[in-house]
Design brief:
Strands 1, 2, 3, 4, 5, 6, 7, 8 and 9 form a 9-stranded mixed sheet that branches. The protein is globular, with a radius of gyration of 15 Å. Mean pLDDT is 88; it is low at 154-158. It is built from 2 helices and 9 strands; from the N terminus they run βββββαββββα. The longest helix has 8 residues, at 142-149. The chain starts with a strand and ends in a 9-residue tail after the last helix. The chain is mainly β.
């Protein structure tokens, strides 16, 4: 399985490349009032408002640093709201510099489960340490999906 590798603080994570629509440079974001701190904001992408989650803040509790390798990874996300179509969700990550193939048979269940973090998936061991898969469908809790995706905006086609 082809994955996109990135960092959140000292830890390495991976996203399934099949879920990625596009990778764009970090841009200025408009804040979302009353959203959790890990919602970095929204930006205009091809005439559609796309919400962005700061993965460093979500995973480590500290804001992501703006580096040359900081990117917004646009993923296909289908909210679990009645009648919802696939939308774009931005995931801001540091050190987005590597695509790597991970053999699915090498993925193992995490030794420790993190309550309230269903987005933390299986782990692969590598020479550089562990890489943990993120489950895109589980990144947003239901109440945040409602806040970010309840508008009648047309689904974004990529």
């Amino acid at each position: 399985m082809l994955t996109l590798i990135f960092s959140a603080g000292p830890n390495r994570y991976a996203l399934d490349a099949r879920k990625i629509a596009e990778i764009v440079p970090a841009v200025s974001l408009q804040p979302v009032p009353r959203a959790p701190e890990y919602v970095a904001g929204v930006f205009n992408f091809r005439e559609a408002a796309v919400p962005v989650v700061d993965l460093c803040r979500l995973l480590n509790g500290t804001p992501g640093r703006m580096r040359l390798s900081t990117r917004i990874v646009l993923v296909h996300y289908t909210p679990k709201l009645a009648g919802s179509a696939s939308r774009l969700l931005g995931l801001m990550a540091e050190s987005v510099t590597e695509m790597r193939s991970i053999d699915p048979t090498q993925l193992k269940a995490p030794v420790v489960s993190a309550p309230g973090a269903p987005y933390l998936g299986e782990i692969a061991a590598a020479q550089k340490g562990f890489t943990q898969m993120l489950v895109i469908e589980e990144i947003l809790p239901p109440e945040l999906q409602e806040m970010l995706f309840s508008s009648p905006e047309r689904p974004h086609e990529v």
